[in-house]
């Protein structure tokens, strides 16, 4: 913290001279030599790049079995260090997560290295699923921050998506395929990321690493909101995404189960808001299965209404749980969708310019209303609450 800001706070009467002195003493005792750490980081990065360049230049000259042996030795050495130090504690959370991240990355690249040496090939989901089975216990037992949580969630999504791409053709987005039971397949394949939220909320109450499980819960809820929003947009633009009602029913059931687990595990405003938001997303997602094929203005209005209802629910949940940034994001998305709707409805007037003028004026009005709404109803900042 700069001394200028401390003087400004003191001049504004927010703190007195004694408090300002204590802040300066604390900051001096806990200051970090950023310059020295930057030099150390640059030096370590230079050494690492040098080693990578040296290995890359002589890659073909090194026998494959030797490369695999070195790879395995690195994995075993790092796994031994983690087994020796991480469970005992004493390491900084960032150091612990860095070791776990590096070990998991080495394990993931080992499968590609193995295929390169022995010239083997297999569907991408198979090595990813094997990696998830081998490394999930380690990552979930000792992970603490977003690098490990993000890597594990990315592995789960990658395994799911690669399986869809192999057997269900991902570009069809939950449409009909030649699979024997398409409704069951498309319904169950999307459930793991959905159920992670409920399981993570339950683990938050019994684990000594609640921050880690909080990250996984937030990632799961984010994935649910993004997936439902994307499906609504596709339905609004295409009119008939060829969705299977059975698969949407399975998705909705998984969302409701996750919501029930969250509200049972976290009896707080945040937990209730999160569970209610997921339940509303489930209802809107399932409701699309019963909508008839529409065209023109009816299709645009219906898709926009569902999208705005979803993110209006997110804004209401944010007010209840005091999520300022989520409220602002939800209001902005609703406003943006309304503006896009105005252009969709005025496309027949764009040639004369009248539609552009009307849409521009409407966009300005929506922006003004969004600012006013945010100022009056946005939850206070965390430092001001």
Characterization of the model:
- The structure is a single chain.
- The chain has 385 residues and is mostly helical.
- The protein has three domains: 88 residues, no CATH class; 153 residues, no CATH class; 52 residues.
- The protein contains 15 helices and no strands.
- Helix 10 packs parallel to helix 12.
- The longest helix has 29 residues.
Gist?
This protein has 385 residues and is an all-alpha fold.
Number of helices: 15
Low-confidence stretches: none
- How large is the radius of gyration? 26 Å
Number of spatially distinct domains = 3
Order of helices and strands: HHHHHHHHHHHHHHH
The average pLDDT value, as a whole number, equals 80
List keywords for this structure.
15 helices, mainly alpha, 385 residues
Mind sketching the topology for me?
Elements lengths: L2 H9 L5 H13 L4 H24 L6 H22 L7 H26 L6 H18 L3 H23 L13 H7 L2 H14 L5 H29 L6 H21 L3 H19 L8 H26 L2 H22 L8 H24 L8
Helix pairs in contact: 1-2, 4-5, 5-6, 6-7, 7-10, 8-11, 9-10, 9-11, 10-12, 10-13, 11-12, 12-13, 13-14, 14-15
């Amino acid at each position: 913290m700069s001394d200028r800001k401390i003087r400004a706070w003191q001049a504004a009467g927010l703190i007195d001279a004694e408090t300002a002195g204590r802040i300066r003493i604390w900051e001096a005792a806990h200051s970090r030599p950023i310059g020295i750490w930057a030099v150390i980081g640059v030096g370590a990065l230079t050494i690492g790049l040098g080693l990578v360049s040296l290995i890359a230049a002589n890659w073909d000259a090194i026998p494959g079995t030797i490369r695999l042996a070195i790879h395995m030795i690195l994995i075993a050495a790092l796994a031994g260090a983690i087994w020796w130090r991480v469970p005992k504690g004493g390491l900084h959370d960032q150091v612990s997560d860095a070791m776990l991240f590096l070990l998991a990355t080495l394990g993931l690249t080992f499968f590609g290295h193995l295929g390169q040496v022995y010239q083997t090939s297999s569907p991408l989901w198979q090595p990813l699923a094997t990696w998830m089975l081998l490394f999930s216990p380690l990552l979930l037992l000792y992970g603490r921050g977003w690098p490990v949580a993000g890597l594990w969630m990315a592995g789960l999504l990658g395994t799911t998506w690669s399986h869809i791409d192999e057997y269900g053709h991902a570009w069809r987005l939950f449409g009909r395929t030649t699979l024997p039971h398409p409704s069951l397949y498309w319904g169950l394949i999307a459930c793991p990321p959905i159920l992670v939220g409920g399981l993570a909320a339950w683990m938050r109450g019994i684990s000594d690493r609640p921050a880690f499980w909080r990250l996984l819960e937030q990632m799961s809820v984010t994935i649910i909101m993004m997936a439902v929003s994307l499906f609504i947009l596709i339905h609004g633009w295409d009119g008939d995404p060829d969705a299977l009602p059975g698969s949407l029913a399975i998705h909705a059931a998984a969302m409701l189960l996750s919501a029930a687990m969250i509200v049972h595990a976290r009896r707080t405003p945040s937990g209730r808001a999160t569970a209610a938001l997921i339940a509303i997303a489930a209802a809107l997602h399932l409701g699309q299965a019963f909508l008839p094929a529409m065209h023109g203005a009816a299709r645009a209005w219906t898709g926009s209404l569902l999208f705005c209802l979803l993110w209006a629910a997110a804004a209401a949940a944010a007010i209840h749980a005091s999520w300022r940034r989520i409220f602002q994001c939800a209001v902005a998305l609703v406003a943006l969708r309304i503006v896009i709707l105005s252009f969709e409805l005025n496309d027949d007037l764009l040639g004369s310019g009248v539609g552009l003028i009307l849409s521009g004026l409407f966009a300005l009005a929506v922006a003004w209303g969004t600012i006013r709404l945010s100022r009056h109803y946005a939850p206070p900042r965390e430092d001001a609450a």
